[in-house]
Amino acid sequence: MENGRWVSRIKPRSAIGRAFLKGGILLFAGLLFFGGYFYYAPIFPPGKYAPQQPYEYSHKLHAGDLGINCQYCHIYAKKAEFAGVPPFSKCMNCHVNLSINKPSVKAIQKAYEEKNMGRWTRVYNLPDHVWFSHKRHVSKNIDCAACHGPVETLVVSTENRVFRMGFCVRCHQERGASTDCWACHT
Ligand code: HEC
Ligand code: HEC
Ligand code: HEC
Ligand code: HEC
Ligand code: HEC
Predict the structure, then answer these.
(1) What's residue 30's pLDDT?
(2) Is the CB of residue 95 below 6 angstroms from any atom belonging to ligand 2?
(3) Which residues contact 59 (CB under 8 A, 6 or more apart)?
């Protein structure tokens, strides 16, 4: 029997051989498990851009656990091309006396007092030849999550999606929005 011979060839006959085989299988399973864990780990999966930010801020805490509305901070989303990132004065609405003993909050308070504009590192960036407007979408009640995914689960801002042309065009076709090249390319 072909099969029988093949099996008997990888089945070690000595105790040492069997121990090595078991060890090898355990090591392989371990690598598979931890490899899988790091691949699917929710915060920094490979290929998802999550730049280091100069200050600490968690969407999971503020937008998720505390349930603060996205547009409370990103106030231009309905009114302009850009959604806008809040200034520190917005954080101070709460943090003027909340959690002020935490170093992460102290750093924000200090920046605010020094009138530091606090540049956060951009996560999303379309190429220059593409024109995009938040207003056109958000005013039509398209949810932030349709494009940005579940931001309220992120501890660190992460690029949930790379905006490829097909993604934009597919929804435009479904919703009867313009698929004219010049609608998006300037
Ligand atoms: C308490 C204020 C606050 C709330 C509420 C908030 N955000 Fe933010 N958001 C920020 C700050 C500050 C940044 C910049 C720092 C960072 O990227 O983590 C940011 C960054 C982002 C970015 C990345 C932008 C980029 O390209 O750099 C996206 C997308 C975003 N927010 C979407 C959302 C969505 C969707 C919600 C609601 C589920 C939301 N935010 C709620 C303060 C807020
Ligand atoms: C139709 C898709 C789409 C929707 C809906 C959408 N965004 Fe965006 N968002 C984008 C794209 C594309 C960019 C990158 C724009 C660029 O690079 O010019 C972006 C960038 C951003 C940025 C960083 C730059 C900026 O505009 O200030 C923030 C913050 C942001 N989005 C928040 C939000 C929030 C909050 C909502 C919901 C109220 C939302 N977005 C809804 C596609 C979308
Ligand atoms: C509507 C109120 C509110 C606003 C606005 C707000 N926060 Fe918070 N923040 C909270 C609450 C509540 C906590 C949790 C307090 C605690 O557990 O001590 C918190 C906690 C934090 C922490 C500490 C996290 C930790 O436990 O280590 C940081 C850092 C922080 N916020 C940054 C910001 C930044 C940056 C902004 C502005 C973009 C902001 N917050 C705006 C309510 C707010
Ligand atoms: C979830 C669906 C959806 C996605 C995804 C989407 N759009 Fe749209 N977009 C629409 C709808 C619906 C309209 C029409 C809004 C209106 O009638 O004012 C629109 C309108 C526009 C317009 C204005 C068109 C005009 O005729 O003036 C531009 C530009 C645009 N989108 C660019 C983009 C880009 C770039 C992306 C990808 C980053 C994108 N959209 C992703 C649904 C979407
Ligand atoms: C709904 C918006 C939208 C429409 C309509 C659209 N594009 Fe695009 N296009 C994009 C976005 C977003 C990108 C950037 C994607 C990227 O970098 O992967 C892009 C990228 C491109 C590129 C660069 C290719 C690349 O991989 O970087 C070319 C060329 C292009 N588009 C041609 C066209 C032509 C021709 C049409 C008309 C038939 C068209 N586009 C219609 C949104 C659009």
Answers:
(1) 67
(2) no
(3) 151, 152, 153, 154, 155, 157
Given this model, what pLDDT does residue 9 score?
A: 56
| Residues in the chain where the model's pLDDT stays below 50 | 1-4, 7, 36-44, 46-47
Helix (DSSP H) and strand (DSSP E) numbers for the chain: 10, 0
Q: Tell me the whole-structure pTM to 2 decimals.
A: 0.87
Q: Which two tokens stand for residue 92?
A: 């101070």
64-96 core/surface letters (b: 16 or more CB in 10 A; e: else): beeeeebeebbeebeeeeebeeeebeebeeebe
Of 81, 83, 101, nearest in space to 144 by CA: 83
Q: How far is the CA of 57 from the centre of ligand 4 (A)?
A: 29
Instruction: Say what the pLDDT of residue 33 is.
Output: 63
Could you tell me if the CB of 74 is within 6 A of ligand 2? yes
Q: In whole angstroms, give the CA distance from residue 140 to residue 162.
A: 22
**Among the atoms of ligand 5, which is closest to the Cα of residue 178?**
5
Q: Give the start-to-end residue ranges of the domains of the chain.
A: 2-40, 59-85+120-184
Residue 132: the pLDDT is 97
**Residues near 161 by beta carbon (within 8 Å), at least 6 away in sequence:** 147, 148, 149, 167
95-108 per-position pLDDT tens digit: 999 998 999 999 99
